[in-house]
Amino acid sequence: MNSPLNEIFKVLHTSQKASQIALDQIGRVPYPVLAVVTNNVDPTDRRRIQVSDPAKPDLSSDWLRRINPFPFIDPPLPTVGQTVLCLFIGGDELKGWYLSLNNDTNPPHNKLNPIEDLSLRVPKNLTVHFGETAKVTCDSGVEIFIDVAGRITIKASELAIDAPTVAFNNASSVSINGKQILTIGSVDTRGDTNTTRGW
Known about the structure:
Layout: H1 4-24, E1 33-39, E2 50-52, E3 65-66, E4 83-88, E5 96-100, E6 134-137, E7 143-146, E8 152-155, E9 175-176, E10 179-180
Parallel strand pairs: 3-5
Antiparallel strand pairs: 1-2, 1-4, 4-5, 6-7, 7-8, 9-10
């Protein structure tokens, strides 16, 4: 039979465990938080942001990394003043992640600048006009140039073309490392017809 003293010890033991749990949560954020973006210009260009927690409006967070629920799509960075959902690994404010939100207060924005960029699938034809030259780069170091003379230059560690047929129309010369490609049916300097592939 339980005595009143045993019940008191149980209550004390339970309160001690609850007190320890509360102490462990000091300085931690164990739950998702809605916060406001204060900075979206990441000095390391890793698309991180800083936010202000409504509980501490005068303080900016450490840099938060992005949760991207859509593979192969690069969603726009949230703008300063936009609301985001923040989560912290183990409640640690130095291990924060954010998820962008779109709602009536924060509608989708125009995508005409680097901070608000977005990868889109174009349903039909797309025409892009460049003044003189165009350059496309990616983080892997690949570069594609189109110059004023109409030359296209691709700089990459490897170039793979996955196609059953590759056609060069109106090409008077095609070369690899300065050596012209030999094609079947071409005539060499002695007047012989080439019958094997090579370069």
